[in-house]
Amino acid sequence: MMFILSEVINSYGSSSGALTNVDVDKFALRLFYVAIGVGLAAFVEGLCWTRTAERQTSRMRMKYLNSVLKQEVSFFDTQTAGSSTTFQVISIISSDANAVQVALCEKIPDCIAYMSTFFFCHIFAFTLSWRLALAAMPLSISFIAPGLFFGSILMGLVMKGIGAYGVAGGIAEQAISSVRTVYSYVGENQTLKRFSIALQTVTKIGIKVGLVKGILMGSMGIIYVGWGFQAWVGTYLVTQKGEDGGHVFVAGFNVLMGGLSILSALPNLTAITEALAATTRILEMIDRVPSIETEDRKGKALSHVRGEIEFQDIYFSYPSRPDSQVLQGLNLKIPAGKSVGLVGGSGSGKSTIISLIERFYDPVEGEILLDGHAIRRLQPKWLRSKMGLVNQEPVLFATSIRENILFGKEGASMDEIINAAKAANAHDFIVKLPDGYETQAGQFGFQLSGGQKQRIAIARALLRDPKILLLDEATSALDAQSERVVQEAIDQASKGRTTIIIAHRLSTIRTANLIVVLQAGKVIESGSHNELMRKNGEKGGEYFKMVQLQQMATQNEAPEDSQVYDKPWRRRSVAPSPISARSSTHNTPIYSFSGTGMSISMGTPVSMGTPRSTMGTPYSFSVQYDPDDGSYDEDLKNSTYPPPSQWRLLKMNAPEWGQALLGCLGAIGSGAVQPINAYCVGSLISVYFLQDKSEIKSQSRVLTFVFIGIGVFNFFTNLIQHYNFAIMGEKLTTRVREQLLEKLMTFEIGWFDEDENTSAAICARLATEVNMVRSLVGDRMSLLVQAVFGATFAYTVGLVLTWRLSLVMIAVQPLVIGSFYARSILMKSMGEKARKAQKEGSQLASEAVINHRTITAFSSQKKILGLFGATLAGPKKESIKQSYVSGAGLFSSQFFNTAATALAYWYGGRLLVLELITPKHLFRPS
Ligand SMILES: Nc1ncnc2c1ncn2[C@@H]1O[C@H](COP(=O)(O)OP(=O)(O)OP(=O)(O)O)[C@@H](O)[C@H]1O
Question: Boundaries of each ABC transmembrane type-1 domain copy (predicted)?
Answer without folding.
Answer: 1-274, 661-923
